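Box 3.1. Reading complex inputs
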Amino acid sequence: MKILYAVPGIMSKSRMGTKEMERRKNVLQSFAAPGTIVDIRDIPDGPESIESTYEEYLGIPNTIDLIVQAEKDGFDGVILGCYADPGLDGARELVNIPVVGPGVTSMHYAAMLGHHFSVITIMDTVVPTIEEMALKAGCERKLASVRVVDIPVLELNERPELLKERAMEEARAAIKEDRADCLVFGCMTMAFSGMAKEMSEALGVPVISPPIASLKFLEGLIASGLSHSKKAFPTPPKLR
Amino acid sequence: MKILYAVPGIMSKSRMGTKEMERRKNVLQSFAAPGTIVDIRDIPDGPESIESTYEEYLGIPNTIDLIVQAEKDGFDGVILGCYADPGLDGARELVNIPVVGPGVTSMHYAAMLGHHFSVITIMDTVVPTIEEMALKAGCERKLASVRVVDIPVLELNERPELLKERAMEEARAAIKEDRADCLVFGCMTMAFSGMAKEMSEALGVPVISPPIASLKFLEGLIASGLSHSKKAFPTPPKLR
Amino acid sequence: MKILYAVPGIMSKSRMGTKEMERRKNVLQSFAAPGTIVDIRDIPDGPESIESTYEEYLGIPNTIDLIVQAEKDGFDGVILGCYADPGLDGARELVNIPVVGPGVTSMHYAAMLGHHFSVITIMDTVVPTIEEMALKAGCERKLASVRVVDIPVLELNERPELLKERAMEEARAAIKEDRADCLVFGCMTMAFSGMAKEMSEALGVPVISPPIASLKFLEGLIASGLSHSKKAFPTPPKLR
Amino acid sequence: MKILYAVPGIMSKSRMGTKEMERRKNVLQSFAAPGTIVDIRDIPDGPESIESTYEEYLGIPNTIDLIVQAEKDGFDGVILGCYADPGLDGARELVNIPVVGPGVTSMHYAAMLGHHFSVITIMDTVVPTIEEMALKAGCERKLASVRVVDIPVLELNERPELLKERAMEEARAAIKEDRADCLVFGCMTMAFSGMAKEMSEALGVPVISPPIASLKFLEGLIASGLSHSKKAFPTPPKLR
Amino acid sequence: MKILYAVPGIMSKSRMGTKEMERRKNVLQSFAAPGTIVDIRDIPDGPESIESTYEEYLGIPNTIDLIVQAEKDGFDGVILGCYADPGLDGARELVNIPVVGPGVTSMHYAAMLGHHFSVITIMDTVVPTIEEMALKAGCERKLASVRVVDIPVLELNERPELLKERAMEEARAAIKEDRADCLVFGCMTMAFSGMAKEMSEALGVPVISPPIASLKFLEGLIASGLSHSKKAFPTPPKLR
Amino acid sequence: MKILYAVPGIMSKSRMGTKEMERRKNVLQSFAAPGTIVDIRDIPDGPESIESTYEEYLGIPNTIDLIVQAEKDGFDGVILGCYADPGLDGARELVNIPVVGPGVTSMHYAAMLGHHFSVITIMDTVVPTIEEMALKAGCERKLASVRVVDIPVLELNERPELLKERAMEEARAAIKEDRADCLVFGCMTMAFSGMAKEMSEALGVPVISPPIASLKFLEGLIASGLSHSKKAFPTPPKLR
């Protein structure tokens, strides 16, 4: 089974570079079931990182092209590599292989493991987007809060101690003040920072890494012959 | 007061052409308050018409550029010229002048005039998008149904009798079966077909033309010194 | 276009008097589009001010009479001059000209300009009424909070500094604690105090004046030939 | 224990007259617990019957006066004698004795006895009012439908066979098409027609008579020393 | 009229013993209408007290047997003696006499007396259960909060002063911070502690005792010939 | 990785017998990832099949014991083998290994693959239970309908042609009339009948088999070190 992790930005050309892409691929591969091969690709033109809906939109056309190509290249499924799931519905309209978004997937996973979950994300600017995702996903009643570490995406990797400290602070507040009993990282860079297990043990609640949850969900779909509904995400009429 | 009607597609290069753009501008101008000047512009590259979320996404980056330019050119406000309000949130992040979307505006107008409204739109493929718009807008309890005439956008102008007949059929069904007491055209081409008044008189319920509602809402905002909230739609951090 | 601002109380006989009525008419006139003539009338018998549902009910029968008379007198539309929109549905049942309520109108305006709005009103006693208005309007998910300055209506005009100070305090708390990104004055006397622009500049969020929003909404309706749905607000059977 | 059934209209002067008032009092008395004394009073001026929100408003000021007087006269509680519960909140603001509305009470009773209930009422014109009552009461998810017999209130008593036939038709449709498992009469005159038991036996679901449910709820409140919350329905500030 | 209070645990064999059972029966009898006879029975095997869903489940099969036997023994109705209403739906499937649960009944009572209610219960472990009850009952919008005294059930009777102090603290916080205007005890042992009247007087809001509310609701049902809907709670197919 | 499929009934002693248990285990094993070992166990005493909430409750105490024993026996996770997820919350309170329910899991899977799903289940008597599950799961807005084949569980295996015919009829109606774009079998016996793939191809929408979805979800949880939240499902205080 071949799975593509599709980055909707120019990660290879950004500060993070191909080394970080390689690292993320390896993290995913380490969680993959026997027989699963994970690959990673980014887009030629688009945002460096996504901290606004504007930046989401910039990368979507190229990301959909990337996913269409992945289907042609024989991939069995695609993980959209941004918490905001940018262009997920559009991509699903163009391909038959399952495309999963870490945002919506992780919210449903959290809803299946507890009563109320909080999303810990980067900056205030993305909070409304995450709340709207929960609403579209039908998970809004389970969303206790969206909290932010208030660190720009491109600085996250460079300040790991600050990130961990701020993430723990917000996580504790989410549990105590917002009654969260499950936590979700609302940013791929936070998720790939590798803090989930340590935080979960310290806090006593599940901490969900959206890319890992997406990988396992996608593997399960492929193994059971499922994909997104083409009645829900139909091929655009002019492309039929 | 100068207002731009921004078409998120390549209308001037499509079958509809500059003549239709001119006609739409004139329709809007005819409803404008004394002192309002309406202009219309489309984008250089993008979809011919929008019948899927994929096509929405194709035009958004150029449409946002168009709106940013409009602000520089001294426009006082912008109407996004597609019922799906493609990229509305992204555009609002980049400018301070009010940008209004005919989709969300017409839904709130309908909610203010009755108890339940129905949207009459083009094809099945856009129904989930319209339902999600209602949800994001907080109008979902007021949405009685979304019904389709099942005619592609680019054929609407060429088959005016069929359009009117199908629109009336669906409108009657919406009123009788779905209990709608207010109707909204869920497509700009349908709205600019000029059927609203005749249908309203025949059916005995308000029939809202989203571009006209958007024009009047926008004029009112500008006259009272209001715009969208920059706290809700903040400038992307990297652009500050 | 002739518009009536209908006061559902005995303002001319109250402490506020005809001078305040004249002032309010002039404020509205100053925001009106060219060609709009605004008039103001109150009722012969009813409450001095409205701080309870009981007082709402006291003035409704006379207010509906006033609105029926306005239609006969050739007015093109009516603004109901109280934030609680007392008797709005009843008045709409009796006339064909559009009748708009500042409460519901301003809530929908706020929902169109941001994600969550707060209403700043007078006293605790009207909070449940405003929450129920949001619910009936289908705006409840967008309502962040209702906050009170805790000053009786009839003292508002006499203590402008205290009013401004208290309004700013509650506005700041709404933004910070309740995450409001848009504000609405939940009382006509507060709205006519003229603080909206100054507060908006100080706070960085839109501050909506319900009577102005109602005026602009009503002008737009009249200009586009719309009114409330008579299917939603039918003439009482015994009066047909 | 003394209970008043307060009619918010001029029943004694209507076609129905004092005889019907006496009959209703006797029906209530027959369901009362030992020791309960039921009385009935109407208002001097107001609507003959209520088939619109306009008519609701006409009778409210006098009905509130009637209820205030009832408290002075030593009544222990009041049933508001119209399904729309006109002025219930206003009346509760002015008195300390419990005032109960048959509309909201019967909806909660139905919610406690099944999963989905339907209201069978008189005419289309009151359907939105009943839906808004369910919303305010927090029962909207339990409301399967509101169906109408389409007979004016003042003709109900004169056409008992037609009423029964139409009520049974709508009840069967509510059960089969709307999945109702509990029924409520949405009109006092229908409720006092005495069809509940026969219909319940024929249909196999509970059929709730709102005035009887209100009587039993009110007796229970009085017996356990409860009333409506004065924090929720505070005395109007100017009357303190 | 004969009513059974069915304890879904082994109270007679617990620390509380038959003396407490007798006391509870007498409290209920003292609130009963003339002609009502209240009896109390517990189950032979099951939990000592209920502080988890696990303990709820342990007692349900025997409790349903107890209720089936009650119907055979000529009881006219049953009150399920635990706030969580354990097995209420299952019991209703097996009998025709009305079975009422203090949890759901008290929530609807609170919804009828105010705008928002809080439940004051024992421990954190039961909070999600109570929130789910409100959701199933269709009362979730009226539920302001669930607050806990954090005292195990079996210690409640032994520490009456601590219980009263903690209950008052949480009640005050519910009113002030959560805007509750009505309170409900979320535990039978708390309800039978007899604090309701004193707390209500001190706090100025209704304090509902669920077993008393259930008794009065049940008496009213029996007196008016109503029971739960057998369409909603059908006899299991294999038992027909 | 060792996974137990825990049957909350006496399947080995029923008409279905150990042969059917063996067959189900093999079906699950055939979908398992390399390295996963699936076992199946039923309970010594309980219902033959579950067609009511009463029968759910009968088997829960023994099923929880079975799950507690599974944890002691070294299983890494448990699938609760009934669509109603009977006792899921109670079981989660007692163990640390993940316990997943096919009902809630399949609903979230459907919500992740489309916009609206329908559940095709056995009989009318379980419909309210399934609707309440969707509500508790926070999926109620995504649930288009619950439809029934109207065949008792124990006859399903004996009438495979009738089952397939009825399932297809209801599936077609769900897609056309209820707008479902994804389907879920609401009964384990239906799910294990092996119709999912054939139906999905005939209907053009995903058809989810809850036990397979549960298996893949559970494998993913175990592989990523996740379990249900012990803050959401705490150990009962008396067992600590």
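In summary: The longest strand of chain B covers residues 143-148.
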